[in-house]
Structures
1.
Amino acid sequence: MSRELINRNPDLTRLRDEGYDVRLQGTYLLVRNVPYATAQRTVRRGILVSTLNLAGDVTKQPDDHQAQFIGERPCHADGTPMTELGGGAIQNKIAPDLVAGFTFSQKPARGHYIDYFEKMTAYATMLESQAAVIEPGVSARVNRVEEPEPEDHSPFHYLDTASSRVDINAVTAKLELDKIAIFGLGVTGSYVLDLVAKAPVAAIHLIDGDVFNTHNAFRAPGAPSIEELREQPFKVDYFKGIYWKMHKGIVPHAEYVDVSEEDADNEYDKNIQIADMNALNAALAVMKWKKLFGFYADNEREHYSTYTIDTNLLTSDET
């Protein structure tokens, strides 16, 4: 996906073609081997980092003028810090072996960068200008040889820019599980699917032997057409058709766990079910699931939660 994304976008292609060491790390754009001056008046090479603003797999105008940097604090050739870069010290884990220690905030005169070529070369030029005083001719244009691209293990058809926009890629990675299963795609189950389909789980198995009927349309996320309802698809196939557009690992199983779920006198079928209440139930369940894997803090470690609608009261209990 990374090489395809670079080839598809002229600004990223231009960066690569003009000799910059361009790579993608998840939803971050990296320009590696950027020379800079250190406080000891030596030249080292660091990595410029920017989040990507994408429309599917097409780059849009950068939505901010900030960049991050992996390396020591950049300095002038005389060893004094480059305060004109703005920003300050941070600790953002881009990948297990890549941690950005600084952020830059240099806004162009027009107030925004046109594209990622302009943005990344602007910062690279500022950094290498000081390094070139110490080591004449040094450049970020290293013309690296293209390396074989590692196999793409992302479960998504496109990049998760929501996580990179707020720098939570490392936290989101805690949800990179091999597989999960959702037993039953009724009201709550369908909303659980809607939420976990945004998580980087490799495979999501859907297990339900029922068909998607008209009354389901008024309970489930989304809005089926009348033509879809006439076909009476299995629930697992209907929901796969929706969420496979985003997540590669939707695996349908049009079957019941056992025959007791087919009981015509099942009281569950006669209980009142309201989409908003079941969606809340699903949200609380998914939040608890994320707590168990360290995505959210979990100080209470409750075993269950209850919500009382007339008093708007949410309680939890450990027993």
Note: The longest helix spans residues 116-134.
2.
Amino acid sequence: MAISGNTILVSSAHSHKDPLNGGSIYVYVEPAGGWSNMTETAELSFQQKGAGIGEVIATNGNIVVSFNSYTDSAVVWTEPSGGWVTSVMPNAELINSEDQPMGSSVAISGNVIVVGAPGAYSNYGATYLYEKPAKGWNKIGITETARLVGDAIDAGGGGNVVAISGDTVTTTANGLGVYVFEKPSAGWADMNQNAFLVPYTGADDASSLGFDGSTIVVGIPLQIVGVNPQQGAAFVFEKPAGGWKNTSTASAEVVASDGNINDQFGTAVDVSGGTIVAGSPLAQIGANLDEGAAYVFAQQ
């Protein structure tokens, strides 16, 4: 799922319509009278077998970004002047100039789209950044503005999970930490990270990432908490007054007060303002095994 303003996206990447596993994204726009039970405002799809549209999605409200697994390219829909309508053809396609594999995640902020590529360079990893062309998102085969590659030892180049807010891009790096890339004064160009954040030592893979410009949240669903394996935790980094810098000390660690073995808290995380939300899909609620829950944390 993804949300921006009054628009919600819900993916159905393996919908068994014709063609098989072409995938769809369902767009819901808040009605004038407020949210109520409803069907979709529009359905976005691409009539290609195995495209898996919706496997990863992002939106800024009037732009929707996803990934075409069949062509290994990101696809972009732009909202028509009259509002969202059902479409079977994206407005633009994003590729990379080096023909490297992409597709783990996508993110958008304003006129910039980032696409994770952990398989690039023989699985070393990279993140590709695209700025909106002068004529808009309306071209097949748009190539990247910049290639962002981390260079921390053993962490690879990043691109596993990506996030962007304003002029800053973040990405997880082989589960070992988070790279931070800030837009240079001369504009986006191929670059290495400005900072590398390591939330833990010897823990398991970082599988989720939330970023709102000043706060980074990293979810570690297999983290041991106390004596509980795979209870899961999330680590919080707040931007220092002097800007992002290398650190191995998180500002905070958040866990579920009723967490237990194998809850996998932190499978999904997000942050906005002073509020963090973390998903715990295998949490037991009452007598219900694996019912799952979302935990909300307000900044103190």
Note: The first strand starts at residue 2 and ends at 4.
3.
Amino acid sequence: MDPDPSPSLLGVTVRRSFATGRFFLGYGTAVSVVLAVALALSQGSAFSSSFPFVLPILVVVGSMGAMVVFTNDRIKGVLEYLLAYGYSPPRLFVTFLLAALALSAVVLTVAVTVGLGVYLARGHPLTYQFATLLAVYTVPMSLVSPAFAATAGMFWTSLSSPRAGMNSPIGLIPFIGILPSLVTLFLLIVLAAAGAYSPSELLYIAAGVVGAVLLLVVTLLSTMSRFLRRERLLSPA
């Protein structure tokens, strides 16, 4: 027998996240597209060297709608009702996590499509190293960063008193979400200054950071049932 036979909330959660977070989605997409076009029009080298590392930072902004919905649902007692109906905390978390990824995918797809289109239209070549960097770092990091921010943010708000602002996923996402990308940039800058890596090794370093963040997200998700009890998600009296 299915231990959690209640109907899926993914579709409605994604739609609510798009509607509630349309400002964040529009802002993240607009800034990403403007930056992509500006870099592609200025110099091809600037686009190929900077855009892959900056885009994951901007994608996080577009995913905030899912966390707005999560926070509002907890404060208003919606999560309490869903728990009483039979939903488990891990299932609720995964639902909001997938909604955040859906929002992130929109920003990522639009920015890469427009930026790469302008880049190629300007006559710049799509080198193997650039294409590989997009595939092994930019796209994965643009998804694991929002996933990390959403998971950590939901843990934070579930283990603390429900409130808005910095003590909620809304306040934490801009800071948590950019940490993996900032760590990557810092690591590459330090190693470049020391002459400790070659351009070909850059891909391995970037992929290693992505793998580490993904492992952290999987670890957090796997500990939900142990550390997050149902009473943690109850609304305040």
Note: DSSP finds eleven helices and no strands in the chain.
